[in-house]
């Protein structure tokens, strides 16, 4: 098996989907797992169990997305060094990533776990869902080091140009997780906390398998993953990864705040609306991971192109990334519009919960076309290391557009859950406009710079 790949060669129209497809499928598997978690829990614990997972998982997603963002900094740095054939630099980046992951994961897990009840209270968690949500959050935080470990290890694998192995690992873990759900929630009657326990066990296995692969199938040895500190590598990982972590966390925070707004709606049954929102959010998480996965793949390819100084190639990466991502989005729009009811029934929704969920889902489905137009240029910018720029755009779109608009139209104007749904595509539209302006400038500057350097080199050679 070819465990690494040079992404600076070949037809982009073919290279991108071949590299991105495992990214997309791995992300979709993770989201499908979230849907299965909720469906199985609702089957045994009812509407309250679904609402509990819906609220607690928003906090979990916030933390996990931050971990993914931090790891993406390592993917980009490793990709750039691998593209430049700097093998020793790759090793230093790996060891430094291990140190950073430990420094962040352990205190975060302890802090969120200890403050679980207070955090859930701030989210206006319905009383009927409080205990289940608390159990889910505490158990999930206990497994947070495994999440950081897997994200870090998969970042190394993807930085080497291999996206298939992470997919295979996620696929195996997803099957195990679903099986464990039936054991912990159904057979052992551990309730909502049992669903989290099943996920933690699967995450631990994923990290172990990823480490085993790197040690056995690549030039890396176990000692390369011991915590070590290289100042230059740490600076680059934080410089690239921290803004992405903040960007991911900010997006998650905005959806978490939407949960607060939903829980404050003046309706007859808050639990019904909370459950409908939670179920729609699970599907939404599933739908948006396709373009987000494409963006991650684009960043990895662009990083190698930048390292190899093949800047013109990045225009093709952008073009084909948009084409593929919008095509994926169109499929999910059709599913949301014509099969939304079936999806909600599969998750145990009926009556008012079913009606509220369908109305909300139809409105947010516009995001499945608009989001790709934002995250694809984000992928290009990230590959260039311009993560501070994408962070700024995302920060404004998430907290300056999505949340205020949701509050205005949902609470002040009284349109309820359905109206809140429009805030999501509106934020993506804002981000898309800003991202395209930025990416055009960055691409033009890099190509002009490369042209000047090439001209200067030719003149010097002739002299």
Automatic annotation (TrEMBL):
The keyword Cell membrane applies. GO terms for molecular function: antiporter activity; xenobiotic transmembrane transporter activity. Keywords: Antiport, Cell membrane, Ion transport, Membrane, Transmembrane, Transmembrane helix, Transport. It is a multi-pass membrane protein. Its main location: membrane. Coiled coil: none annotated. GO terms for cellular component: plasma membrane. The keyword ATP-binding does not apply. Multidrug efflux pump. NCBIfam families: matE. This is Probable multidrug resistance protein NorM. It comes from Candidatus Stercoripulliclostridium merdipullorum.
């Amino acid at each position: 098996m070819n465990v690494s790949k040079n992404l600076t060669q070949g037809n982009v129209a073919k290279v991108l989907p071949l590299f991105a497809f495992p990214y997309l499928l791995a992300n979709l598997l993770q989201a499908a797992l979230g849907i299965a978690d909720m469906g199985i829990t609702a089957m045994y614990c009812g509407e309250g169990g679904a609402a509990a997972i819906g609220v607690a998982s928003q906090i979990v997603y916030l933390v996990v997305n931050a971990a993914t963002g931090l790891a993406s900094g390592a993917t980009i740095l490793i990709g750039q060094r691998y593209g430049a054939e700097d093998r020793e630099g790759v090793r230093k980046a790996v060891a430094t990533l291990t140190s950073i992951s430990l420094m962040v994961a352990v205190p975060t897990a302890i802090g969120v776990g200890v403050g679980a009840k207070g955090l859930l209270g701030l989210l206006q968690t319905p009383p009927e869902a409080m205990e289940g949500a608390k159990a889910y959050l505490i158990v999930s935080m206990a497994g947070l080091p495994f999440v950081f470990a897997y994200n870090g290890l998969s970042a190394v694998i993807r930085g080497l140009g291999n996206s298939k192995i992470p997919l295979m690992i996620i696929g195996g873990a997803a099957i195990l997780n679903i099986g464990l759900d039936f054991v912990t929630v159904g057979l052992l009657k551990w309730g909502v906390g049992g669903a989290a326990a099943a996920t933690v066990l699967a995450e631990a296995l994923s990290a172990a398998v990823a480490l085993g692969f790197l040690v056995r199938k690549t030039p890396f040895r176990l000692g390369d993953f011991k915590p070590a500190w290289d100042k230059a590598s740490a600076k680059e990982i934080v410089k690239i990864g921290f803004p992405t972590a903040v960007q991911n966390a900010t997006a998650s925070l905005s959806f978490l705040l939407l949960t607060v707004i939903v829980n404050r709606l003046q309706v007859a049954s808050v639990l019904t609306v909370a459950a409908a929102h939670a179920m729609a959010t699970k599907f939404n998480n599933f739908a948006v991971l396709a373009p987000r996965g494409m963006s991650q793949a684009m960043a990895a390819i662009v990083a190698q192109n930048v390292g190899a100084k093949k800047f013109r190639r990045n225009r093709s990466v952008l073009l084909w990334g948009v084409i593929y991502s919008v095509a994926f989005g169109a499929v999910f729009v059709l599913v949301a519009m014509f099969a939304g009811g079936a999806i909600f029934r599969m998750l145990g929704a009926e009556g008012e919960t079913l009606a509220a969920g369908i109305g909300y889902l139809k409105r947010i489905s516009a995001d499945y076309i608009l989001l790709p137009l934002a995250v694809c240029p984000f992928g290009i910018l990230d590959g260039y290391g311009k993560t501070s720029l994408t962070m700024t755009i995302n920060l404004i779109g998430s907290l300056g557009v999505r949340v205020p608009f949701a509050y205005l139209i949902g609470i002040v104007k009284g349109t309820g859950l359905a109206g809140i749904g429009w805030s999501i595509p509106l934020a993506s539209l804002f981000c898309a406009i800003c991202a395209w302006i930025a990416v055009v400038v960055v691409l033009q500057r890099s190509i002009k710079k490369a042209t000047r350097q090439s001209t200067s080199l030719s003149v010097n050679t002739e002299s």
